[in-house]
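Thread: "does anyone have the structure for this chain?"

Original post by V.I.:
We have the sequence but no experimental structure in hand. Need at least a predicted one for the grant figures.
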Amino acid sequence: MDGKVAVVTGAASGIGHATADRFRAEGATVIGWDLEGSDAAVDVRDEAAIEAGFAAVVAAHGRLDAVVHAAGVAGGGPVHLVPGDEWSRVIDINLTGTFLVGKHAVTVMLRQDAVDGERGSIVNLASVEGLAGTEGGSSYNAAKGGVVILTKNMAIDYGRSGIRVNAICPGFIDTPMLRSVFTMDGMEPIKRDITAAHQLGRLGRAEEIAAVALFLCSSDASFVTGVALPVDGGYTAGHRHGVSELMGLA
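Reply from O.Q.:
Generated one for you, tokens below.
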């Protein structure tokens, strides 16, 4: 990533923070966006702020090579219990925010010259919950499912212009956002069950997602676009029912 200019949203904590750190370690110039605690205060629901943010990046650094859109919030519940304004909050941040960041990132990338045939790379953070439902997921799952399809459509629309667009679908990652969910009353046995559903027997780490984001934005992934890549410790591989233990496996 030497010499590359990257914007990382949600950069103040969790996956976004780990991604910004990893990109900097690999030689990129990184501009982190978040509501606070990062390089620039940008609300991903605010289209004018996003457009101005990208303009400032180009004015300062000359181009935009990569965007990792990691900003997001938790939310959900059975649909009959989800207030309309809560549904809108989750969709606006997780899905509409992805659209707005992607819209203005692509606009900038289309204006710049290609380097080695590529104008830029965008990575959207979706979720395994955007690939399959989970009980009580409703708004969060709907938003992340939308991110997956939006990513594929962007890959189709902009591939011939030299812009790659991919999504990462993390499993359950040990971040402040997930911890805030697991510390709610009654969640301890659910946390154990969810952890066991990952075939590696543990939750993921933010830096493991950052490593995949780095790959997708690098020249090593130059033929990768339109992918919704699970990085999930085997969560989406299938289910365990105890048969392995009968055969002498752990």
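V.I.: this helps a lot. The longest helix spans residues 84-111.
O.Q.: and The CA atoms of residues 7 and 67 lie 5 Å apart.
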